[in-house]
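Progress against Task 2.4 (sequence-to-structure conversion) is shown through the following example record, which the project officer requested during the mid-term review.
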Amino acid sequence: MAQLDVVIRGGTVVDGTGVPRYQADVGIKNGRVARVSGRIQAGGAREIDARGCIVAPGAIDLHTHYDAQLNWDPYATLSGWFGVTSVSIGQCGFGFAPTRPEDRDLNMRMMNRIEAIPLRSMQLGLRWDWETFPEYLDSLDRQGLGVNVGALVPFSPLRGYVLGMKAARERTSVTEAELNEMKRLLHEAMTAGAFGFSADKNLEDRTEDGSALPSHVASPEEFLALADVLSEFGVGHLGWTIGISTTALEQQRLLTEMMRRSGRPLHVAVGDDEQGFAWAKEARDAGLPVIVQQNSMDPVAEFTLAEYNMFDYMPHWIQPLVGSPDERAAKLRDPAAREAMKQDVLKFPHARTDWNTMIVVQVIEERNRSYEGLTLAELGQKQGKHPLDAFLDLALDDGLKTTFSHMLAHRGDETLARRITNPLSHISLSDGGAHIRYLTISTWPVHFLSYWVRDKQLLSLEQAHYKMSSLPAWLASFKERGTLRIGDWADIMVYNLEELGYVYDKPTYASDFPGGEWRRMQKPTGMRYILVNGAVTFESNECTGALPGKLLRSYDMID
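Structure tokens generated for the chain above:
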């Protein structure tokens, strides 16, 4: 009789701790790493040949928006294909719990606007067998999961649950009774296993009608009071998105105090300027545990103006891009609106409106075919128009179905390399589950390992897997995950480093969301096996049907 459940034989182990790699077998019993040795004599009920491969901890993705998708996709794809074995949801203060029945539609529409999750898919796919946050956790726990899931309490629905979602977007203060109720709800959620709470003050994030988020208008006292609640538990972290903001310095002062009062780590998106990293260093020098979220690539989005929302950081672009395609088209024809939009481009310079890098990817009307491949600067020059007029006129002529591309950020390899290697940063973020028609950033584990480690040799494999797994596990309080030491949960990726890459030259499409809604699709090459809690979930991109993932509870992380 086999003594072990699984034995992974002959691979090179990179265990996530920073210890130099070594060749060994890995034995798994009851979902945990039971033995790591140069030769395991005992057999396994399943034997995996890992010769020529790296055996490493599964990646941990701390910034995802799979809150909805997990209802119909327990593997959190694309992430589940690319070596991610644990995800954190509830980021940026967005989510679906707690939510009163009368506010469900508003919360779905808010997620549709901000995170570009198809509304129809949410309407069909969300079970809504919950109202409170503990009930939401129980719902995920019951359904079965293909990845491990830890959840933050999202601030905007929390405030909306107490004030009502409409009032929560408008009121800039709360009563003492309302604040006490917010604290009670967070306490209840933490007791049920939440891993902290998150919020967002990013100017590009707006509700379905273009108005502010609850987290945008909330008073500092509310966030500080919730930080006090978090201090009672000694587990979890603060999640915060500064993003594109005119109040970054004010937020940094608030976040510093929140760290002091909660005693917990801060996981923060500081935006693209260097000042955010400088502040993070000051905070760390003062003994405060802050980790900066850092992408390992410059994301390029392909979009149509029929539904795109990633210009919402410019005030005069918001309303022209709110509503149905017909409503948008009418507003985009208005000369006064266009003039205000042009002025915003000058006031808010960004890679997203760099006419020299924004490209016409695909047109609808045959008469426009010659414009494909042109930048908007070239298009404007060819037509004798301002690039914005050329941009909008082409889109309108195609019924707002022209596909354009632009960089969401343009930092370049030199800046990215400096930030990736910064000890204050991690690269475990994808926005997975969000922006599904525009982006495939969930490919980041393969991109990081193939581009930055194998091709650029920016980091060693040991450093890379620390950044991908061990560091985020520490930040999130995911106990006994992120490393392959004896007794750790056996969340593992087995891959051939030289073969790592992509199945498709560029992302393709799949209509596999509820209601037949489509998303961009990519899959990896070289990823041989993915194991979650000791069970194989994917073998060379083929799903095994196993659902070994766990709904992680923060109270299980404390001895």
